[in-house]
Amino acid sequence: MSSLFGAGRTNVNKAPISNTAECTTDGNSEPQKPALSLEQEIEVLAQHVGGIASGMTIEIDLRELLDLLERKRRKADSYYQLKKHLKEDYGVELIITSRTSKKEEENDKND
Fold it and tell me: Which of 25, 59, 74, 93 is 20 to 30 A removed from 53 (C-alpha atoms)?
């Protein structure tokens, strides 16, 4: 009975459990670029297109934009915040083209 309620219990040293995940890198993977703020992304984009001005429209291919401003999710809608910020604060419209959007436009023209 005493063994059930803790009498005669021995102390077992357990290693503390860590809640932080260890960061392992695969030998084949490239090191990730640090995430940029929206203002830094706009600076990079402005340098790429030669400057930005209110009322201008920037049309850029998704692949090209991914090379400039990397995203984990490789879709045009992952740049929503950048597009919104450019439109509201700078008056610049960002149009991102991709193979998918080009196919959709061609299908619309054929209908």
Answer: 74
